[in-house]
Amino acid sequence: MRRSTVVSGRSGKNRNYRSRALAAAGTAVAALVAASCTAGSTSDGPQPAPGPDQQVTITVSSQFTDRELDVLNRVLDGFHAKHPNITINSQGNQDDDKITQAIRGGNPPDVAISAETINLGQFCSSGAWQDLGPYLQRDQVDLNQIPKVVQEYTQFQGKRCAMPLLADVYGMYYNADLFAKAGITAPPKTTSELTDLAKRLTEFNPDGSIKVAGFLPVLTSQANHPWNWAPHFGATWMDAQGKSVLGQDPAWQEMYRWQKELVDFYGWDKLVQFTAGLGQQYSADNAFQQGKIAMMIDGEYRTGFIEDGAPNLRFGTAPFPVSDSKPELYGTGFVTGTIIGIPRGAENAGAAWELVRYLTTDTTALVDLANGLKNVPTTTAALHDPRLESSEQYKTFLDLFDNPQLVASPPSPNGSAYMKSTEDFSVKWQSGQVTDLGGALRELDAQIDAAKALGGG
After folding, report:
1. N or C: which end of the chain has fewer CB within 10 A?
2. Mean pLDDT, residues 146-159 taken together
3. Is domain 5-168+335-401 classified as CATH 3.40.190.10?
4. How confident is the model over 340-360, as pLDDT tens digits?
5. How far apart are CA 2 and CA 278, in angstroms?
6. Is-same-fold flag (5-168+335-401; 170-329)?
7. Nearest to 5 by CA among 402, 284, 195, 241
8. How far apart are CA 411 and CA 118, in angstroms?
9. Angle between helices 392-401 and 302-309 (to 10 degrees)
10. With helix as H, strand as E and coil as C, how does the chain read?
């Protein structure tokens, strides 16, 4: 899933925990806490589905726009065909802040679709989204049809207030022509191999500036984010008590030192100049699509962007390389996804649940959504359905999703605040403002834990 910026006829909303969501984390926390106090109450127990003769209209709010909203609406039409007594009012361009404001104002949609999985901890802990456990138990929904890691990132502290609606998986993209030109026959599997190939694939202009980056090591640029890289080093965010452990887990230092080696190879000033001239991540002049980056990390949705914006680009995909010290991790990756739930105070919760269950467990619905949105379906049956469209490059991500080693960032009661703090730290580190890496990471732990305590953690 990609963000809500329109790109070449498709709306973009990448599922890596996007910068726009991180910037809005502070306001979302306050709004969600308020929502638990001001939204309408919810009756005890699951609400019954409307009878076949009972005409009901339910409102569905989602972040989708343009082409992606059309895809969703076609699938909603399929639900209406099965339930002609339930009419759906689909409202697109509704991000988490807008949905939260509606909940807080006592006028929530019946169904909410969020592109920000990391906000789930807020939704569940504040009560802004209803607990779906009673519905699942009543209707005997088998959650084992959903991969374990996906089950984990759609619940918080034992409370399931959301169901998964497609996923994004991150892996490596590489330019096949640039590989051939350099005599490279296979993608790297370890970070040392990635470093070596990055140097071999890099081209400099006569003035010493970067012409083509073998691999762009700048965090916050393109899809480079700490949470996308961390699984490949085996780095963990929190301990069992939810305390930040970046300063205790040596994998974080290994990751940052690996990055700094590449930053120093290019030179920070040259990287700043180079990234300033790159196209936006979800625009038609994306740096990889324009041949300015030879290797990168990105989600499966990029195959759709390339198909639309750079159909002549010859590229391959593979799992992203892992730490040399942990080769057994090869095949892991970062996973996140769209979530769907029933807001507190929903007028037609019984009918809303029927739609939520349909969209998240019906194989035909999931395959149609996956084919239209170019995202990974979130049930085993849909993942292996023969109708699921899959190019050679896209299949890499389907295989990754089948890997039990996939990693999601842990939900937190203050949402993405800990991720934004880590990214802010990364900017200081890569630009040379941090001298004591271990000490700085321990200070970051204290900062994250203090913010979590203030945010309700």
Report:
1. C
2. 90
3. yes
4. 999 999 999 999 999 999 999
5. 19
6. yes
7. 284
8. 6
9. 170
10. CCCCEEECCEEECCCCCCHHHHHCHHHHHHHHHHHHHHCCCCCCCCCCCCCCCCCEEEEEECCCCHHHHHHHHHHHHHHHHHCCCEEEEEECCCCHHHHHHHHHCCCCCCEEEECCHHHHHHHHHHCCECCCHHHHHHCCCCHHHCCHHHHHHCCECCECCCEEEEEEEEEEEEEHHHHHHCCCCCCCCEHHHHHHHHHHHCEECCCCCEEEEEECCCCCCCCCCHHHHHHHHCCCCECCCCCECCCCCHHHHHHHHHHHHHHHHHCHHHHHHHHHCCCCCCCCCCCCCCCCEEEEEEECCHHHHHHHHCCCCCEEEECCCECCCCHHHCCCCEEEEEEEECECCCCCHHHHHHHHHHHHHCHHHHHHHHHHHCCECCCHHHHCCCCCCCCHHHHHHHHHHCCCCCECCCCCCCCCHHHHHHHHHHHHHHCCCCCCHHHHHHHHHHHHHHHHHHCCC
- How far apart CA 431 and CA 218 sit, in angstroms, is 9
- The yes-or-no verdict on residue 186 having pLDDT over 50 is yes
Task: Give 44's Cβ-side CA count (13 Å radius).
Answer: 0
Largest CA-CA distance found in the chain, in angstroms, rounded = 75
Alpha carbon distance 383, 370 (integer Å): 9
pLDDT in tens, 230-275: 999 999 999 988 899 999 999 999 999 999 999 999 999 999 999 9
Domain formed by 170-329, architecture: 3-Layer(aba) Sandwich (3.40)
Q: Domain-by-domain residue ranges, the chain?
A: 5-168+335-401, 170-329
The model's pTM is 0.87
